[in-house]
Write a structure and sequence with these properties.
Order of helices and strands: EEEHEEEEEEEHHEEEEHH
Structural class: alpha+beta
CATH topology: Chalcone isomerase
Distance between the termini: 26 Å
Largest sheet: 9 strands, antiparallel
CATH architecture: 3-Layer(bba) Sandwich
Oligomer: single chain
Helix content: 25-40%
Shape: globular
Strand content: 25-35%
Number of domains: 1
Length: 217
């Protein structure tokens, strides 16, 4: 299996020092490469070797309910805290939207988060995402306007443990479905919440290396 670690760059966030690593090219998978994987699957020949994150196998393609074709893995990254792997991210999108800017919120996507950290209490996990969502929303006042939707999102997030996954499935029509491995699954609607959520990873305040590794330009 391939590992998700390549060139790193440091950024400061919430009092912690982070580093982001991703594909060696620091860009997302190009549509032709994704097409080659999809074609290989249809022919029964398989795609490239799977990606490994904290012992979790990240497939090159995922089947999505209601979609006729599988979605390819178009980007991945590892986020480090104080030079220690914190969590990994894998982004899947429909092939026909592979070059669209995900920050616009006009196309569906699936983002899988895999924890690398051995353990982190739920309170600290929620505090991390509260700060990230507040920053992405534009500040405390804008975050407060998200109200119960932001609190619902944060309440879904449990304590972290190595190899535990959280999946974020975004649909322009329905919102973001948050699915915790072995736990709850809820849909968070509202255009303002979902714009802020997407901005964590793809917005102007997102780390540029993370954005590039996930295919946000």
């Amino acid at each position: 299996m391939r590992d998700a670690q390549h060139a790193r760059t440091g950024v400061e966030s919430g009092g912690w020092r982070y580093a982001v690593s991703g594909p060696e090219s620091a860009t997302a998978m190009k549509p032709l490469a994704a097409l080659a994987i999809a074609l290989a699957l249809s022919l029964g020949t398989g795609g490239a070797s799977a990606l490994d994150m904290a012992g979790v196998t990240i497939p090159e393609l995922v089947r999505v309910e209601g979609e006729s074709r599988p979605w390819p893995l178009v980007g991945h990254a590892q986020v480090q805290r104080s030079f220690i792997p914190f969590f990994g991210l894998a982004l899947y999108r429909p092939l026909e939207y592979a070059e669209d800017d995900p920050a616009r919120g006009l196309t569906p996507l699936r983002l899988t988060l895999v924890w690398y950290t051995p353990s982190l209490p739920a309170e600290q996990v929620r505090d991390h995402f509260r700060k990230a969502l507040e920053r992405a929303a534009g500040g405390p006042a804008q975050f407060e306007r998200l109200g119960a939707r932001a609190e619902k999102f944060l309440a879904l997030l449990p304590a972290a443990a190595r190899g535990r996954t959280v999946t974020f499935h975004y649909s322009p029509d329905a919102g973001t479905e948050v699915t915790v491995e072995g736990g709850a699954s809820e849909i968070i609607a509202g255009i303002d919440f979902n714009r802020a959520f997407l901005a964590i990873w793809f917005g102007p305040e997102a780390d540029p290396d993370l954005r590039a590794a996930l295919g946000g330009g």
